[in-house]
Amino acid sequence: MREWAETTSDTRPQPATVEEIRRHLTFVASTLPSKTVSDEGGRKRFAVYVSLLAQYSEPAIAHMARLACERLRWFPVPAECLELIAEYRPPSDERASILRLCDDTAQDLFERWLANIGEGQPIGEVPDRWLRIAVERGTLRRLENDRYVTRALYHHHPIRRG
Q: Which of 21, 35, 82, 85 could form a disulfide with 64 if both were Cys (CB 3.0 to 4.6 A apart)?
């Protein structure tokens, strides 16, 4: 699973297009009243909204528009738009979820291995990083010639790795 997740491209959502932003702002404008502005003022106002919202995905802007219609009595000012969009939580990314699951599984395996060797069970074949951590934590003792022994069973008979 890790190999698939690491070789799969990141699927971050693309920023919304100007047309997508226009569509959602038009929806909000048709639902909520706002101050009357001149055509030129409207173009400037729209440019400000686009510049602030262009970094967000279309689903995030749709979320903002829905919340504005649900909660507000007037067309939102830019700060209100940003507050609403901050509440958006994108659906979980399958790739990121799998990588997190792999990391959690590896951590769980390491913690169980560390507890087992702390109780005197055999060291086994594990990554060198695990051995170094176990030495730093005092669970293993590193001897000469790349040999390790569990401190729980230390009887001057080291367990040879490999």
A: 85
